Amino acid sequence: MIRVPSRWIVALALVAAVPLAAAPLAAPQVAGNIRLQTLAPEASPWVGALRQMGAIWQKATGNRVKLIVNAGNIPSDKSAIDRMGLGGIEAATLFIAGLGEIDDAFNVFGIPFFYESDAELEYVQRQLQPMLDQKLAARHYKMLNWGNGGWVRLFSKMPLRTLPEIKGAKLYTTAGDDRNVQWYKQNGFNAVPLATSAIAFNLKNPIGLINATPSPPAYALAAGFYKDANYMLDVKLGPFTAGTVITEKAWAKISPDDQKAMLAAAAAMEAQVNSSAPALDAKNIDEMKKAGLNIVSVDDKTLAECKKKAAELALTQRGFLVPPSVFDAALGARDAFRKGAR
Fold first, then answer.
1. CATH superfamily of 29-338
2. What is the enclosing helix (H) or strand (E) of 269?
3. What is the band of 6 on the pLDDT scale with cuts at 50, 70, 90?
């Protein structure tokens, strides 16, 4: 449990023959600037939502908390985590790969075809939240909110429809996670680890290291690499989820009342981003289609075969990329949702 210092300090002085008097109340805690880093491009909707949340923070706390968002100019989520560890920034909005750098438990939200809808994902997140909060607290972080960035599709420089074709592609994966690369290679994929910032350059380059990458439409549009990887497999591979975390040290400097106001604004941002994600996906895909993106469709039989194989691959992540207890908890929550739990 994070301990927050008292908002007020009262000093008592006893002077002979003088009445008891109380010292003046101390000034409210001032947390100052909360510097937040994110890989999300400046033009992305997530950055706009973060800035809006920051404006609410500043007003609700009487200027005691100011959010400074630095977007898109880091090579990876890991660099943001390292900067938090060194005190260079206080907060970060991290994608699943980054959250997984903090704790393997978050990898459960990156399993392909594990989730079928936004509602299902949000239900599993709610059920696992107490466990995830404990894991973050053990590493001196607090989670402020989740963010839904739409559904990941596969963008490539050539049409890809079947699992064998996808395995034959030079497929981007996040650099820095050797186990993730190992998992891909053990299952027959030609995974190429790169910094996220290197995706667009390598897709544009005729002899680039990759020719395909999973991405939500919003990121593909904002980063512009859909112009080079101009084929999109019209299959939802999985949700593109992010989470905003703040260091325990920075959070402890904020008064309980201001913390409450900040969490309310963070929850409102989460609800706003989650509710707008489906329409945003459709809008972004339509915009890219008008600019030349080719949509690659698959028939029902091919999709069913792909999902069946993906379910088998998901089990190989249990105990390797995802702790067994977390995998089992997520699977139980997901199956409960499919049986009607809400």
1. Bacterial extracellular solute-binding protein, family 7 (3.40.190.170)
2. helix 256-290
3. very low
